[in-house]
Design brief:
This protein is α+β, with helices and mostly antiparallel strands. Helices cover 19% and strands 31% of the residues. The protein has helices spanning 14-20, 202-205, 217-226, 267-276, 290-294, 309-324, 355-370, 380-384, 407-415, and strands spanning 27-32, 36-37, 45-46, 49-56, 61-70, 77-79, 81-89, 92-93, 99-100, 109-111, 115-118, 122-126, 131-138, 142-143, 146-148, 155-158, 172-176, 179-180, 182-188, 194-200, 235-241, 281-287, 329-333, 342-345, 348-351, 376-378, 385-386, 389-393.
Length: 424
């Protein structure tokens, strides 16, 4: 066993922020996205401009705060103004709901490189499953080296110079398909409120689902929870998926990787930041592993990063231990099939499926189902595979690449999750 399983990610200062802000008040995450590093040459840059970022929340609440991340920044990030409001349509907001956000009582905040900020709480009625508009003004040049690439949500950059954060009709210069800097929205909840973190790769991030439709499986799970009564309706669902993310290794380094650091730090490394630091987290759905199996197909992946089922299981065991140490329940999700899967793009056309890789997937899935080491099992494999050809996705659920699932497949995965896993 290599020493990669022995290296625990350091506990970041953000773990203390949940108690430093609003002691005695119960906060839960209602929306989140994972911070990703972007190459400076490709990162969006804002100069004396505002952005309006649209997010779809899960649980509701009467008070709100946000998280802004400069995790991968190399320079301090200056936020001149920040506002939150209920979105009505397109870029427009309900002006009665517009709230200026402050940071320790100040309208502006400077976030050091490698850090994040949590806003002060504001009174704002946030209905479950509603859209919020979070608007940020950058008085100085801000390069979005910390962002989330696959937003599957249209966001907006202002056309004119200056602060447009309070504009009812936001002046648009261009649209974005990413979420720069914003990584979380939290609501004040009753004592039985809690958060579920979906921790995964592009299958969790929603690749294959319809843009601007909120049909990722965590979105559909949030809808199911809101249709229930009692404490289940007070559960927020947080999507911490990253395209191409692996459990055991970071995004491959070196100039041959066209994605640079965008595919994220390993699940082992980012777990504290993206899971354990989330407000109110009580449940984790572990959905990483498929890219650990598939990445040896890519020419930019070092041969030393080829993994076995035993390697993946050892990684799971480490995260199970770390999660339970915090009193959090962790459920394992089986890996869906990928026969016929292809990667086309960045100058590559690669067949991802081999029988050997499928045997690794099957071995990992059998361990998830039968070992009893997770606190519960979510069987995504069973939910979306073709019963007549179980090494591939059911055609009705498959996206064009036969690796990801479409909206119907996302719904099948979410519907296959037993809500009894979240009973308290």
């Amino acid at each position: 066993m290599t020493n990669r399983f022995l290296a625990l990610a350091p506990v970041l200062a953000v773990l203390a922020l949940n108690t430093a802000f609003g002691a005695g008040v119960h906060w839960i995450g209602t929306w989140s996205t994972a911070a990703q590093a972007a190459l400076p040459a490709t990162a969006e840059t804002f100069r004396n401009q505002s952005v309006r970022l649209i997010v779809h929340v899960s649980a509701g609440g009467k008070r709100l705060r946000i998280r802004i991340s400069n995790t991968f920044g190399e320079q301090p990030l200056v936020i001149g103004r920040a506002h939150a409001a209920r979105r009505t349509m397109n870029t427009e907001i309900d002006p009665a709901s517009d709230r200026p956000l402050k940071f320790r009582g100040n309208a502006s905040v400077t976030i050091p490189a490698g850090s994040e900020a949590i806003s002060d709480a504001v009174d704002l009625d946030v209905p479950p499953l509603s859209d919020l508009a979070v608007s940020l003004y950058f008085p100085q040049m801000a390069q979005a080296t910390t962002s989330h690439v696959l937003a599957l949500q249209t966001n907006f950059v202002s056309s004119g110079p200056g602060d447009s954060t309070a504009s009812v009709k936001f002046p648009v210069e261009k649209t974005l398909s990413s979420w720069p800097f914003l990584t979380g929205v939290e609501v004040e909840s009753s004592g039985h409120g809690a958060a579920i973190v979906a921790f995964g790769s592009s299958l969790t991030d929603g690749d294959g689902s319809t843009e601007d439709a909120n049909r990722r499986w965590p979105d559909v799970l949030a809808e199911r929870l809101q249709k229930t009564s009692g404490s289940a309706a007070a559960l927020g669902v947080l999507n911490e998926g990253i395209i191409g993310n692996r459990l055991l290794n970071d995004s491959p380094s070196g100039p041959a990787n066209p994605f640079g650091p965008m595919l994220g730090e390993s699940g082992l490394k980012r777990f504290d930041r993206d899971v354990l630091s989330q407000s109110g987290v009580q449940y984790v759905l572990m959905c990483l592993g498929v890219n650990d199996i598939l990445f040896p197909a890519f020419p930019f992946t070092p041969p030393t990063e080829t993994v076995t089922a035993e390697d993946i299981i050892a990684g799971y065991r480490q995260l199970i231990t770390r999660t339970r140490a915090k009193g959090i329940r962790i459920m394992g999700a089986t890996i869906p099939p990928f026969e016929g899967a292809k990667f086309e793009g960045a100058g590559m056309n690669i067949d991802l499926y081999t029988k050997e890789r499928d045997r690794t997937r099957i071995a990992v899935n059998e361990w998830i189902r039968r070992s009893g080491e997770f606190d519960g099992v979510v069987d995504f494999d069973q939910a979306v595979r073709d019963p007549d050809r179980p090494a591939r996705l059911l055609p009705a659920f498959a996206a064009e690449d036969h690796l990801h699932v479409n909206d119907a497949g996302n719904a099948a995965q979410a519907d296959g999750i037993s809500l009894e896993l979240f009973q308290r």
